[in-house]
Amino acid sequence: MKKLSIEQLLGVDKFMVDDAEAHIVLNKEICATCAAKPCTWACPACLYTCRQDGEISFDYAGCLECGTCRLICPSPGAINWRYPRGACGVTFRYG
Ligand code: SF4
Ligand code: SF4
Fold first, then answer.
1. Is the CB of 63 under 6 A from ligand 2?
2. Looking at ligand 1, which atom is closest to the CA of residue 30?
3. Residue 2: its pLDDT value, please?
4. Which of 8, 53, 72, 95 could form a disulfide with 4 if both were Cys (CB 3.0 to 4.6 A apart)?
5. In this structure, are residues 39 and 30 in contact, taking their beta carbons and an 8 Å threshold?
6. From the candidate CATH numbers 3.30.1310.20, 3.30.70.20, 3.30.1130.10, 3.50.50.60, the one assigned to the domain spanning 22-83
7. Which one of the ligands is nearest to 69 CA?
């Protein structure tokens, strides 16, 4: 079976991005104190990346609303997480 890229995998889902209001907001000051940054390997959509300067980079567009980052984050208050507003967010079209 051919291995698909993350872009190809996410391409089977439909996203209605709420440009006016992010449903996940990070506290970058808390993230700066997080050494392990487990969000960077746990997010199935690969939305968290660690820049070369160590700062966390995150884009809520493409979020699958799985809640993994919220559960795995070791720092209380680092992630302000909620579901997207009505009609926004992911629609799973396959499976
Ligand atoms: S695991 Fe939590 S505190 Fe650590 S970088 Fe990710 S969001 Fe920030
Ligand atoms: S809820 Fe899931 S898909 Fe969305 S950012 Fe968190 S880990 Fe990634």
1. yes
2. 3
3. 87
4. 8
5. no
6. 3.30.70.20
7. 2
